[in-house]
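Researcher: For the annotation table, I need structure tokens for Deoxyribonuclease TATDN3 isoform X1. Please keep the output clean. Sequence:
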Amino acid sequence: MHGYVDCHCHISAGDFDKDVEEVIENSKKAGLLALLAVAEHSREFEKIIELSQRFPGFIFPCLGVHPVQEVSPEQQRGACLQDLDAALPIIEKYKDQLVAIGEVGLDFTPRYVRSDTDKENQRLVLIRQAQIAKELDLPLNVHSRSAGRPTIQLLKEQGVRKVLLHAFDGKPSVAMEGVKAGYFFSIPPSIIRSEQKQKLVKQLPLENICLETDSPALGPEKQVRNEPKNICVSAEYISKIKGVSLEKVMEVTTQNALQLFPKLKAAIRP
């Protein structure tokens, strides 16, 4: 299997509006075979679907409600069920085109969570989206900031089996609970400047690792727009930590992505 899969990327972000064609072209040159475009809120759902139609067999849509919602550029708050209500009809409309429900999850960063009620609202939104994923037989593309253990626990309680934990920020010991449940972890290019991500990769079996860029965030350099072409930065660093060839990292992570997101198989043939 020669090439990479970016399992979590925000290609619909405004940062890419001016040069998306070039960004996609560069990512293909860097060896990218497919890119999973995740959503944060219902207002960008149509844009993600349009991009997946504009770049068929390369951009694959994931729709979901992120645990943090923007009120204004300066103000953000935890998600609540009303946010999900706006999203459900669009998810229903495009359900056959989706490769995953995402980006969903929990975010207990203190500035977004003022009370236990805020945490509970996020949990309710995640539980409902976990149910939708099971009904549609789709994996979940999951965010868990400052909430690694509660997220893994909730997913296990809900009987969710197909999970990608993106840019996991918890301890390796907590991640191993996810490994036991059969979950996958995707690693962004920011690994080159994150000791926590480096420790995580040391512990995680390669069989549970996928690649992501989370573009335009989590790039190799802080405050510089990240692009899907940087997927190879993640792969190279993983190969260094694991002491295996880049070829091996490419092959195993791509097989992992195909196992977790079977709808990619039609587009990516060995």
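Researcher: And a one-line annotation?
Model: The chain has nine helices and ten strands.
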